[in-house]
Design goal:
EC 1.1.1.14; ADH-like_C; ADH_Zn_CS; Rossmann fold; metal-binding; ER
Length: about 350
């Protein structure tokens, strides 16, 4: 079978690998759609994220959907022909975090496409049935592949307690930020304001449910956002997908006393400067978000309901035979591209 393999920085090539066989509790899945994630691009361009280094040869990709083609022993709930998505994090199931259901915090988790674990940009993968979920009938493979980034949004909504009537700001309109809009709507937020520097992404955000859009590199827009926060007495939550210190400072100034920052984006360095005194005086809560847990079935249900909106996030499509061109395009067209989808069977 073919696999897309990172050979060096900005160099991905197709190579032949042995088709895997499912073991006990596993299914063999033919990959039909794989989304290029921001982390994939980071490994492609820089070779590392913090201390995690992608040592070639390495396979990227973890946002995916496909078809079950073979079922291993001890699998009861999946059958050949089922359309499925996978949850890419495989916890140990035995540590203290796993025992209380917080498996996203498992220190031994094997997360696909996070070094040293290969990802899914290949024609076939084997995956535990326990972390493989049937897609709703009629949902496309491309839309279903958004279940992974949408899971980040749903988990964030849960952890920050977004509820009917919430006034929120979402900073950064990459795929996760846009998925966050869908999640916030799902949980009943009444006022969703979003920020970015790219007009195209703000336009998409407006179409899928943002009530107001702020181009943060425009001084007048930033002033207007602060004025709106003052009028409201502060926003209930600010969700930051960028990790930038400037965004964090802005978030503190936008929040009401007792408000919550949901931190999705990783900071640029191992240490960050935060306005701790101001946060203490206002009892601002910082809620870190690390991946997700128990979200994929909810994500698939939401995608089934919001197909028209979610489709706007899928902007570009490439066969895996053009994998190098796909990554080059995703890396250099962030101003006009949201989510690039690879078709491994083409």
């Amino acid at each position: 079978m073919r696999a897309s393999v990172l050979k060096a920085l900005k160099t991905i090539e197709l190579e032949e690998r042995t088709k895997p066989k499912p073991g006990a509790g596993e299914v063999l899945i033919q990959m039909k759609a794989v989304g290029i994630c921001g982390s994939d691009l980071h490994y492609y361009e820089h070779g590392r994220i913090g201390e995690r280094v992608a040592k070639p040869p390495f396979v990227l990709g973890h946002e995916c959907a496909g078809v079950v083609t073979k079922v291993g022993p001890e699998v009861a709930d999946l059958n050949v022909g089922d359309h499925v998505v996978i949850e890419p994090g495989l916890p140990c199931g035995e540590c203290s975090s796993c025992r209380v259901g917080h498996y996203n915090l498992c220190p031994k988790v094997l997360f696909l496409s996070s070094p040293p674990n290969d990802g899914v940009l290949m024609e076939y993968i084997c995956h535990p049935a326990k972390f493989t979920y049937k897609m709703p009938e009629g949902l496309s493979f491309e839309l279903a592949s958004l279940a992974e980034p949408l899971s980040v949004g749903l988990y964030t909504a849960q952890k920050t307690s977004i509820q009917p009537g919430s006034n929120i700001v979402i900073m950064g309109m990459g795929p996760v930020g846009l998925c966050m809009i869908l999640a916030a709507k799902w949980y009943g937020a009444s006022n969703i304001v979003v920020t970015d520097i790219e007009p195209y992404r703000l336009e998409i955000a407006k179409k899928i449910g943002a009530m107001d859009t702020i181009q943060v590199n425009h001084e007048a827009d930033r002033a207007g956002l602060l004025a709106e926060a003052d009028r409201l007495g502060g926003f209930d939550m600010v969700i930051d997908t960028s990790g930038a210190e400037a965004a964090f400072d802005m978030a503190v100034n936008l929040l009401k006393r007792g408000g919550t920052i949901g931190g999705i984006g990783f900071p640029g360095g191992a240490k960050s400067t935060i306005p701790l005194l101001k946060m203490m005086q206002r009892e601002i809560v910082y809620q870190p978000i690390y991946r997700y847990r128990h979200t994929f079935k909810h994500a698939l249900a939401l995608l089934e309901k919001e197909q028209e909106a979610a489709q706007l996030l899928l902007t570009d499509f490439f066969p895996m035979s053009q994998i190098s061109a796909a990554f080059d395009y995703a890396a250099s067209n962030k101003d006009k591209s949201i989510k690039v989808i690879i078709h491994p069977d083409k």
